[in-house]
Design goal:
two-stranded antiparallel sheet; 2 helices
């Protein structure tokens, strides 16, 4: 089990001429998802507040 885990960490993904470790790819995916959700939530709140102010 430990050998399989260490092989997954040491394996890499080809990105053009770069070899990115899987841990870096996972971190980039997590940061991208977090930013995407943050922008989505912020946009929804902005639209809601604009609609509430328009009714008054």
């Amino acid at each position: 089990m430990i050998n399989i885990f260490s092989v997954q960490i040491l394996s890499s993904v080809k990105f053009g001429e770069l070899d990115l470790p899987l841990s870096t790819v996972y971190i980039l995916i997590a940061i991208s998802a977090f930013v995407f959700l943050g922008v989505g939530i912020s946009s929804i709140q902005l639209v809601r507040s604009a609609l509430e102010n328009k009714d008054e």
